[in-house]
Write a structure and sequence with these properties.
Elements (H helix, E strand, L loop, with lengths): L3 H12 L9 E9 L4 E5 L12 H11 L5 E10 L12 H10 L6 E5 L5 E5 H4 L12
Parallel strand pairs: 3-4
Antiparallel strand pairs: 1-2, 1-3, 4-5
The structure holds tetrahydrodeoxyuridine.
Tetrahydrodeoxyuridine (THU) binds next to strand 1, helix 2 and strand 3.
Amino acid sequence: MIHIEQLIKKAFEAREKAYAPYSDFKVGAALLCKDGSIYGGCNIENASYGVCNCAERTAFFRAVYEGKREFQAIAIVGKSESAEEFDYCAPCGVCRQVMAEFCDPDEFQIILPRSLTDYKVYTLGQILPLCFTGKDMKK
Ligand code: THU
């Protein structure tokens, strides 16, 4: 059983890989699959700004490519290179929607750390209420 602190540590490690020369805001994510495996992700920016990919989506897309479809939790850390301390870095709306595609809103946990031991935990349903999913298309 993975400890939350281990997942947070992986998110900080993933952040080291961030490619963010335009915003200087580096983000790392660590996605915990139900089988216990963890996929890291970082933000990857582009000179054409709209092409930027968030850390969370990098982690999800890596995991899905590897055949994973069941997820337990994600830890996300982000800060500007000039900022001294981390503050809670909530996922953007697009990333929340990607989470909604694969995760149970009542079970999937979003862990927002400021440090290894100081963090907030939300369910996906708390941060993306009334979301649109494939189920809505079958009604
Ligand atoms: N970003 C993420 O990777 N995840 C978030 O939760 C918030 C924003 C990235 C996108 C962009 O590369 C930079 O942070 C500034 O928006």
